[in-house]
Amino acid sequence: MSKRFIDLRSDTVTQPTEAMRKAMFKAMVGDDVYGDDPTINELEKYAAELVGMEAALFVPSGTFGNQLALFTHCRRGEEVILGEDCHIVAHEVGAAAVIAGVQLRALPTERGRMNLEKIRSTIRTEDIHFPETSLICVENAYSNGAVVDLDYMRAISNIAKEANLKVHIDGARLFNAASFLKVEAKEITKYCDSVMFCLSKGLCAPVGSMLAGSQEFIDKARKKRKLMGGGLRQAGFLAAAGLIALKDMTKRLSEDHGNAVYLADELDKIEGIKVDRDNLDINMVFFTIDNIEDISDKLVKYFNDSDIKINGQEGGKLRFVTHYWISKEDIDYVINTLKNFLNN
């Protein structure tokens, strides 16, 4: 048996729970491309109802789901308005240019929010020189740890309706956002035309995300999913874990958020460390350490030698992420390890 590491790199590192493993072992499956997989069908029906949409579609990953949404909403050469540091722009390998063939109009953000008037002024008018604007994308929760409030979501929806545009939510951590806002996920998604949300990450399923929207949208997306190589045949083994993720694991995310605050509080007590309190809405803790650019590689190695996995600094900041497999006792060990490193 491999030794256990405390893994703070991301919530993407979560392992499936014992209940998920048992459900996967016993899952009833069929050929999903033919529509014959009963567990996939159950997952898609439940996921759609959970976010207040007519239909949903199982996809291999969050990136796949976001790019499938762009591919389905937009025609080639159209323009998408979104935040300059959102996941679709920063971490999806330029896929929008390759798959959907769209142009990304990336706007500055503050805590995950684009300026509303800037969005309005960025929507293209009719002109022979301009591409057509077709879609606005919003990330919630944002990958910088911030949650976008419902008033902002409503304002985005209103702007889109006025301009006859669609809205897509990258909801990779949608249920973290809902937990922070103390609302059901459908209270967020009622302001969009489509939403992607992950079954993995903090929900612990091993593989998969969902794309949800109108029945017409999902019918189109299903065919485009096949084009992209996402027809997964007997995928019910994965859907069995996904059902537990949505039915059970969504209800405990506040524990991860509480552990993130505990971690932030303990980090704040260490001289030379400054925690980004403005982006502490979910399970991510961003912080700086004096001279982090100089010591980052040594810190990563020291932690790894102490059975802790972390990422190095990015843009002068470190990020620790709490999840189902991180306890308060783990956090105490991490804090003590960090103190030992800084005192050496």
UniProtKB/TrEMBL annotation:
Keywords: Lyase, Pyridoxal phosphate. Pfam families: Beta_elim_lyase. GO terms for molecular function: L-allo-threonine aldolase activity. The keyword Lyase applies. The modification N6-(pyridoxal phosphate)lysine is found at residue 201. One of its GO terms (cellular component) is cytosol. It comes from the Bacteria. Residues 7-287 form the Aromatic amino acid beta-eliminating lyase/threonine aldolase domain. Its cofactor is pyridoxal 5'-phosphate. GO terms for biological process: glycine biosynthetic process; L-threonine catabolic process. Belongs to the threonine aldolase family. This is L-allo-threonine aldolase.
